[in-house]
Amino acid sequence: MFDLLTGGEPAVVPLTLYTDSFVIKGQIRTRQSRITDILNQADEEFLVLSDVVIDDYGSRNLATRSEFAQVNLGAVLFVVAATSMEPRPDLRTPKVPEQALISIPPFQVVGRIHLLPERDLREALADLTGRFVPVTDATYWSDSVGEARQSAPMVAINHQRAQILAPHREVDPWAGLDRAAGAAEAPGPGAGQGDWSDPASPGGGESRPPVDPAWPEVDRPPS
Predict the structure, then answer these.
(1) 155 and 138 in contact (C-beta within 8 Å)?
(2) 141 and 147 in contact (C-beta within 8 Å)?
(3) How many CB atoms lie within 10 A of CB 108?
(4) Which end of the chain is less congested by CB atoms within 10 angstroms, N or C?
(5) Is 18 exposed, middle or buried (0-12, 13-18, 19+ CB in 10 A)?
(6) Could you give the CA distance from residue 32 to residue 158 in angstroms, rounded to a whole number?
(7) What is the pTM of this model?
(8) CA-based R_g, the chain, Å
(9) If DSSP codes are grouped into helix, strand and coil, which group holds residue 118?
(10) What is the dihedral angle through the alpha carbons of 191, 193, 197, 198, rounded to the nearest 10 degrees?
(11) How far apart are CA 201 and CA 207, in angstroms?
(12) What is the dihedral angle through the alpha carbons of 174, 103, 21, 154, rounded to the nearest 10 degrees?
């Protein structure tokens, strides 16, 4: 998995991996210069991390520590690098940054994806490939599992698990609808049952004669 073109001794890179159920923090020794290269050029379907801490989402239990851990890349939603690792200038492909919202349940990520230039946005998104895609200047959070907003110079999202929206904007689903008028037109309790004492009431039909309290119902003479 090492890129020998980068030269030098392997560096120890701290990573935070968000999976379906866990936050996994650990370290990996690598000669790769970028987090996406570490993930996309892995020889196996997993990474082996050292000095690992594993914590459940929203759990009050103590975290689990392990000297080593094999982490299945298919279960990884996205990976956060503690520091920004720049690629070698001679290996860098010119890209155009585009603000995007990435839905990767139960998380959302907002940041900049990097697309090939001289294309409209539809074509550029069609050309966005790779198992893990970098998002820079990222903010990520999850309301459903209680993970507060955090920021990172770069996160690498699992492309197969993500929906990418670009450009994006928040909208009010009730926009253009008069909710107050709708509530006023809604029928209240008992609507449609009619009023037998008023022949003109909707659904009332024929009116009943008033009951004379002087005559019990069973002894009243015929009218």
Answers:
(1) yes
(2) yes
(3) 17
(4) C
(5) buried
(6) 18
(7) 0.69
(8) 32
(9) coil
(10) 60
(11) 10
(12) -130
| 16, 30, 126, 127, 130 from 121: Cα distances, Å | 31, 34, 9, 10, 17
Q: DSSP string covering 39-60, please?
A: HHT-SSSEEEEEEEEEEETT--
Write out the two tokens for 19: 């999976």
C-alpha span between 200 and 43 (Å, rounded): 83
Quote the pLDDT of residue 169: 65
Asked if residue 84 lies in contact with residue 154, where contact means CB atoms within 8 angstroms, the answer is yes
pLDDT along the chain (223 residues), means of 10: 52 93 93 88 94 87 91 96 61 80 96 89 89 94 92 95 82 64 57 50 52 55 59
Neighbours of 119 (CB within 10 A): 13
Asked if 144 and 106 count as a contact pair (C-beta separation under 8 A), the reply is yes
Provide the pLDDT for residue 154.
92
The domain ranges of the chain are 7-85+94-165
Q: How close are the terminal C-alpha atoms of the chain, in Å? A: 103
| Residue given tokens 């570490």 in the structure block | 38
Tell me if 108 sits within 8 A of 141, measured CB to CB: yes
pLDDT, position 149: 95
